[in-house]
Every structure is written in structure tokens, then in C-alpha cells.
Amino acid sequence: MAFDPTLAEFRFGTGRSPRLEAPASVDAMLSALTRADSMVRVFPVPPFSSIAEDARRHQSLQRAIRRNEGDVESQKEEFKKLRSRFSARKWRYAARQLARGLETEDGFRERLVAFWADHFTVVSKSFVTRPAVSMFIDEAIRPHVAGRFADLLRAATLHPMMLFYLDQTRSVGPNSPFAKGKPNRGLNENLAREVLELHSLGVDGAYGQDDVRQLAELFAGLGGNVPDGFKYFERRGEPGPEYVLGRAFGRRKPKIEDVHEVLDTLATHPDTAAHVARKLAVHFFSDTPDPDLVAALETRFLETGGDLTSVYAALLEHPTAFSRPMRKVRRPVEFIVAGLRALGMRGKTLTNLTPKRFRQLVTTPAQLMGQTWQTPTGPDGWPEDTGHWITPQGLAARIDWAMGVQGASELELSDPRDFVDVALGSLASERTLFAAGAAETRGDGIGLVLSSPEFQRR
Amino acid sequence: MVSRRDFLRASAALGCSAAASPLLTPVTLAAAPWDARLVVIILRGGMDGLDVVQPYGDRDLAALRGRELKFGESAGAADLDGFFALHPAMSPLIPLWAAGELSFAHAVSTPYRDKRSHFDGQDLLEAGGGFGPGERVARDGWLNRMLQSVPGVEARTAYAIGREDLLLLKGAAPVSNWAPGTEMRISPQAELLLEMTYHEDPLFRDAVTEALELTRTMAATVEAAPDDDMMAMQEMMKQAKGGRGHLEVAEFAVERLREETRIAAFSINGWDTHNNQRYVLSRALGRLADTILALKIGLGPLWAGTTVLALTEFGRTVRQNGTAGTDHGTGGAMLLAGGAIRGGIVHGKWPGLSEGDLYAGRDLLPTEDVRAYAASAIRGLYGLPVSVLESAVFPGLDMAQAPGVIL
């Protein structure tokens, strides 16, 4: 099937726009990935280290208040202000993250970032890390989406947000110098298990409980905290060697290079190639993808040692890449961004909203549609299957948002008969074209286009 | 081993048509009309059965726990039967235990073994079958297959509640899916046009048809004035600590179960206690206890005929881990509540906790299939024949030893 720009915008991008061009070819889509990431400059999210100062202050205020030290009243006041600053930052970065989808002509990159951020799901578990999920995505995921899978795996696994989320920071080797005389301290298996099950080999991969345990021993020592970021504590490491998938890693004295080595080994393992290939195919094409497509991705992954841009080339060059029907549906946040993009909203308009208004327009509706911002229920991220999202309650929330969005004062008025072309292009069905023209009001017409199956599928 | 993705593939292939399964022959219900209420709660994350229903009479427990994970009466747990004690966060349910409206099954699990994945574990718990290599993959949830085997089931008979998809109730029998707080504001004319645009896409068409019908149902119930039971439940909800989401789900379940609905299913999350279990588990148990109390209060006289089952995908390691928590294990505990059950009992065959008694040297050995308890409850409530339960609802289950759990 030949390249189709409209299909590219739906299946591999953030949707159609009245202002921005669709990609011109597969080559253009791939070469955009190799160029500088312009959206990150326009809508920047600061690094994880930028919350250090506030986090330290938060800690000391909390301690002082608990111990009743100093002027408690004014400290309480400051504590409250500081907390609202953490929340405000979370929403500000959320808006910037999504604004990129409104302004980009390199939509494939945004979709890949979302895909990998989901593959390496982290959820904030404390107040001070609320703004830090966006930071994790921008420093551990985004720079590596067009690089080697091994670099992505390493950056994601060793980021403090991942270590916090999967309980790694307090895990210590039972025979480490640190654990001497501390019978209560020892291993926590959580990160090791999920790295094998979700991030690399996949649940059908060739690992067992012993591999989980041994990997947890190798991971002992990975740690850090919010003010200082990542740190490797040699004294908490388990004296090696450890055996993962039948191979020995490390020696008596634990070191971070052992962790790098085991992650690199996992990153290029054939089971990882199969797992990643299948996940990409499921995400972009179908809940039951063409085995030939999965095989093509897997082969390319293995041939290139996990060079992701080469794998994406296999994805886009596959004969079914631009074929219909559209078997997947946009997830709620994707749906809302595509809707606002089609309605011509500018990224700056989104980032200029107050946090309250941003939540009202974007994240609260997304939650009702089943996707609470940056809070999937587990490390396996958001479900892929279409049936999960198009439930009666989920679809009702989508329709409710679609029917009301035209009333948003931030949006210019659109005529539904023009809008149907902007939003759907060649994908518009006769039925939707008719509905857009037959609606009683402008808002209903826009709502019907946004609610249409063509707009929600990709 | 059946993987999660096989399930997803299979459930996607099934679609959402409401045709009756040709594999099942409908059987006649023991009691018609159907009065008994059944609530099934999936506890996602792997509940630590050993910390909830603590075998404090087992002398091996102290060596495995008891550093941060304290247990028994000295730690505030209430004695149940001289051997087991109930976690302090469950103390609001002690009156139910005393009244014979609460029981547990211990050392139970599904036949899922070894990989200890939450996601496969949950899928298999909800599918209720397809555990062995080469076995037919269950494409639907066991609660839906139960509905497939009885006549006269309508969409409103069973509700899956919440914003998460529930495999447990997915399948060929018609059921309703809804979440409290959902609105769909649409003009009558746009509604007609929308139905037209959805006409050729079954996924969207079926979902919107159900959504429109449910919105109407909700609108009709809102008009009824709350009675004393509802008011008492709302009062209890106001007093409860720790978030509202689970209580809104419970309230919604109560509203539906007071009408034509007989079965409600939903999840309570937050059981994956790798770290600082004392704190995390107490919060999750608080949500579970408050949910059950809200059901009891809100259902009023209907509680006498109600059964609540709470199940989890697996138990956790018998030994406390190195971060004051526990890791993924195998055998665990299940909760039964309601006026319809045989209460005041901890069911099960206790395997012991000494080194040689453990599963794989680390987990509580499951001595019974947790599905046998669910099957026994269904049999007791609705009179389904053992043959249907063992073949259609829970393929591969042997009910020969299944205990009676319903009065």
C-alpha cells in the first residue's frame, strides 16, 4: 500500500491540523527523527535536578513542623505554598508535553515518546515527585526514542523515578557490607521482575524466579533520593557473581558496570526483540497484528542490535503500514490532543491556561474516559485493546467532551462542514459528512465529527 | 502458559455481540425470581493473605514476620478462632464476624504458578480457566460464563462498575458496564445523527447503544428519594477516611442492586505491598472494609440475601523482604461476606509454614483452588449443577472437596 499522508497523521502522528503540514513520505518521517527535537526547545520541561531545592526545603519544613521547631505557623504557611508549587509544576509540564502534539510536524516522534513512556511506565508516589514524571520522560525516554534500545533501557531503568516507583532504592544485598548487623534490610524484587517481564524479555521470555532473584541481587545498590538524584551504593551491592539467564555477571566486588552489562545483555536478547516487535505492532496496527509484520520488526531488531530507527523503518516500509481499515482507537489523551489540534488550538494557548482550566479542558475529561493523567494502575501501563477504551462509560465521556468542546472560549469558531475535512480529510465517511452538515448547531456538528468512529480510530 | 496477550487477542476476537454461547446449555434456576445478590471484588496487586488473616497460632510465623510486619493480638489484630487473627485495619468488620456475616478461605490460589506476574495472574483469575499448556484459552470471564448458563438474563442483571475494563464479566452474556459520575450530554437530534454515524462500526455502535440506555436508567433512579438505608450509607461515607472513589463505586452498586440488578463486580487496587507494607496494606484494607460496610448498610434488608466475594491474583512471600514489605508469592486468602454466607469460619487446609511446607521454598503452599470457593458460592446461591460449574464456568475445576460456603 502506497504512502498516505492522512493515514500517516492518524496512525503515526498526533492528528490533522488546519495549520500544519502532513508528512510527505516515509523518508521524511524517518529523517525527521534524526534531526534536532524542535518541540522540546519550544516547550521545555526542566530536568529532575531542578526540583532538588524545593524538595530539600519541603523535607526540612516537614521535619521542623513535626518537631514543633521554630515559628510553626509561618512554616506551615510556607509548606502549603511549596506544596501548591509542586502541583502547579506538574500541570504546567503536562500542558507543555501536550502542546508539542498541537504544534509538531514530526508527530511520529510524539507518538513514539508516548509509546516508550508507557512501556517504561513510572508513577509518582510522593508529593515532591509530582512534576517529575514529565521530567523522567524528557530525560530518560525522549532523547533515546530514535537511538538504541539498550540506551533507552539503561536510561529508564536507572532513572530515580523508576527506582522510586518500583521500590528499588531501599533494596540491599543480604550479604553486602551495608546489611551486616541489619537483619531487617535485604532485597526487594519489584524492579528486577518488571525489567524482565515488562521492559525486556516479556512475560513469555526465557526467565524464571531464580533469574528475578539474581537480577535483584545485581540491582542492589541502585538508589538515590530526590535532592541528589541517582546514586550507586557499592556497599549495598551483593557480592557476586550473579547468574542471569545462565550467564555470570559481576565478581565479588559489586560495581555499576555489572548492572550496565546485564541490562545490555537483556536489551539485545532475542526474546526482547520479539517482545518489542510485538508491542510496536500492537500499538500502531492492531490488537491482533499481522505475524509477518511482527516478524519483520523482530528481524530488523535482531539484525541491528536494537537500533530503533531501523526498526521503525521496517514498520513504515511494511506493505500494510498505510493500509485500511483502522483497527486501533486513540487513547483518551491522544483523542483530546487530536481534537484540540484539529480545532486549531495553539500550543501556547494550552500552556497559558491556568492549571484549573487545563484540568477542566484536558485531564478531567481524560480521566472520565478512563485515563487518569500519568497514573496507570500498574507498571504495565495503559491497556492496548480497543475494547478496553470503547466501553459504554468511556465512550459516553468521549461524546460528552466532544459535544461540549466547541464552547471553550479559547477556541475559534469552526464551521462543521469545513471542520469535517480538516479533522478527517480523506477518511471522512459519507455518514459523518452528512451528520456534520445536518446538525442543529455548530457545537453539535463539531461534536459529531469528533465523536465519529473515523476520528477515534487510527 | 497462556499469556496476557493471548487473552487480549482472544477477547478482541470475541467482540461484544450478545449471542448466547453454543457451548453451553442453559439450566433452570433453583429459585425464580432471582433474589440473591452477588458482589465480586477483584483485589488487584496481590493481597498478602498472611498479613490480613494472620495465622498467629502457627509457631513458624514469628521467624518469617514480626520485624516490621507484626501480627497477632499483641499487634492489635483481633483473634478469630484461636489460630487466626484479623488485621487491625479490618476491625470495622469484626461485628460482621460476630454476626456470622464474614468468613475467609486461607491457603488458596488459582492454578497459576511460578511467573508471579500481576497481569497474567489477574487475567487468569478473572477468566477462571485456561491455566495449563495447550488448554483452550478462556475468552471471557467466569462470571459472564455463569450468566451464559442461566436463562432470563438481561443486561441489567449484572453490572461491571468502574472505568477499568473487567474481564471477569466480559463475554457473550449481556451485561452492563458503567462508572459512577459518567455523563453524556447530547441533544436528541445529535443523538440520532450519532447513532447513524456509528451504524457501520459495531464496536462504537454497541457501546453507544448501551451508554444511551444506561444514561436513561440512571436518570430514572435519581428521581427516587433516598430512604433510611441510603441515608445511613451516605452518612457512613461522609465519616470514612481515605478517598471517595471506592465508596462511590459501592454506592453505585447498592443503587443498582436495589433495582433489577443481581450481580455487581468491580476492583479495589493497591495491594502490591513491596515496600512499607504496614502502611500500604492498612490503607487498602480500610478501603475494602469501608466498601463492605457501605454495601451492608446501603442494602439494608437485602443484605440478608447477599454474598460478597473478594479475590486476589496471588498471595505474597511468607518472608518479609528487605524493605519492610513482601514480594509476589502464590497461596493467599479470600474473603466472603454477607448475610447469605456461613460466617465466622476460616475455611481451608492449613499447610504450615515450616521450611518444608512452603511452595518453592518461599510462598504459602496453596492447598485448595480458590475457584472452588467461588463455585461453591454460586452453587449455593443459584443452584447451578456441579457439572456446569466444573466444565463451563471453571474449566478444569474439581469440586469434589469444595466446602459449603452458603447457608
Automatic annotation (TrEMBL), chain A:
InterPro entries: DUF1800. It comes from the Bacteria. Keywords: Coiled coil. Residues 58-85 form a coiled coil. This is Uncharacterized protein (DUF1800 family). The lineage of its organism: Bacteria, Pseudomonadati, Pseudomonadota, Alphaproteobacteria, Rhodobacterales.
From TrEMBL, chain B:
InterPro entries: DUF1501, TAT_signal, TAT_signal_bac_arc. It comes from the Bacteria. It holds the Pfam family DUF1501. PANTHER family: BLL7424 PROTEIN, DUF1501 DOMAIN-CONTAINING PROTEIN. This is Secreted protein. It comes from Aliiruegeria haliotis. The lineage of its organism: Bacteria, Pseudomonadati, Pseudomonadota, Alphaproteobacteria, Rhodobacterales.
